[in-house]
Amino acid sequence: MSLLITNIGELVTNDPAESGDLLGVRTDAAVVVSDGLVEWVGSAAEAPAADEVVDAEGRAVLPGFVDSHSHLVFAGDRALEFQARMAGESYAAGGIRTTVAATRAASDEQLTAGVARHVAEMRRQGTTTLEIKSGYGLSVDDEARSLKVARQFTDETTFLGAHVVPPEYADDPAGYVDLVTGPMLEAAAPHASWIDVFCERGAFDEDQARTILAAGAAVGLKGRLHANQLGEGPGVHLAAELGLAAVDHCTYLTDDDVHALRDAGTVATLLPGVEFSTKHPYPSGRRLIEAGVTVALASDCNPGSCYTSSLPFCIALAVREMGMTPAEAVWAATAGGAAALGRTDVGRLVPGARGDLLMLDAPTHVHLAYRPGVPLVVRTWSA
Ligand code: NIG
Ligand code: FE
């Protein structure tokens, strides 16, 4: 079965060989997808025949968004916490424990239905690849079942037993690290590809993060980190030192952190929906890009620090608040997200890549930031 999308006003390929610009933009373009893979990219005038033809009528077509950071396995919400923050309260990661209690009390069916609802929401907004973390179970059984639920929706699942120390271990954080690196890891690992640690004051320190990431690596899990979200700290440096694919948040960075990321080639994943929802200052995407750091944009969709599933919203924030051009923001939400997941088969439209695409009801990618809040993604295709 082959699909031809033709009369594309602007095709974002993310292939620098196309036009020399960051997004590898082609105008008056066409693309053919066959058996789930991009087969051909070229000009509309030279488009080959296909089983199905879609006329884009001058609209923009982009690679599907790659959301490399989400926490979709949860129950309940924390709207009152958000309301209080907007009235001046500060964000406390301790709210995570509220969601842990609700998640533990939910059935597998309820958790699965919640993930399905949020994945559908993401898909409507153009996301075709996503990562999902555990981290609201924080017991052996609840972390394992969270990952089993997540695995029904994506292969990019991340074990985040080290989110916070749960209440029953409040007096014994070392015992909790033993649990995470022992029986919990054993139960979680068959359902996960990645391991993550929230390395932050009030969560896990550098030594604990090292221990947990090493235990994950020993059973084949790739490492990533939540770091420097609430203040400066050792997490970003640790991610660079360990050569991790990505370190996420990066809200508070020293120059030394920035240089370490650049030298290591570790992707800085920025999550501007978090700053929107916590009122922390937005990090500067410009500063990172100018320094030569690879930047990704992701949603961090979770009920506490950021309850948006929308990468178009994150793109608009990155352009308005983080000094990124529309092209840089779109690249960060597609090719950047792919880099953060160590993937080369998504985030770009070149022959051989997955046939994951989205169409905007707009002529160019710039409209994603220019028309914030407008549901511009009119169609997605996913392999
Ligand atoms: O990515 N930083 C830690 N974890 C989440 C917040 C989770 C919550 O508040 O429930 C985050 O922001
Ligand atoms: Fe997160």
Give a description of the structure.
This protein has 383 residues and is an alpha/beta fold. The protein contains 15 helices and 16 strands. The chain has helices spanning 16-19, 79-86, 96-105, 108-124, 140-151, 173-188, 206-218, 235-241, 255-264, 272-278, 285-290, 311-321, 326-333, 335-340, 367-370, and strands at residues 2-12, 25-34, 37-43, 52-55, 60-63, 65-67, 127-130, 132-133, 157-162, 194-199, 222-227, 246-249, 267-270, 295-297, 357-360, 377-381. Strands 1, 2, 3, 4, 5, 15 and 16 form a seven-stranded mixed beta sheet that branches. Strands 8-9-10-11-12-13-14 form a seven-stranded parallel beta sheet. Helix 8 (235-241) runs parallel beside helix 9. Bound molecules: N-(iminomethyl)-L-glutamic acid and fe (iii) ion (FE). N-(iminomethyl)-L-glutamic acid (NIG) binds at residues 93, 95-96, 99, 198, 226, 229, 274, 300, 302-305. N-(iminomethyl)-L-glutamic acid binds next to helix 3.
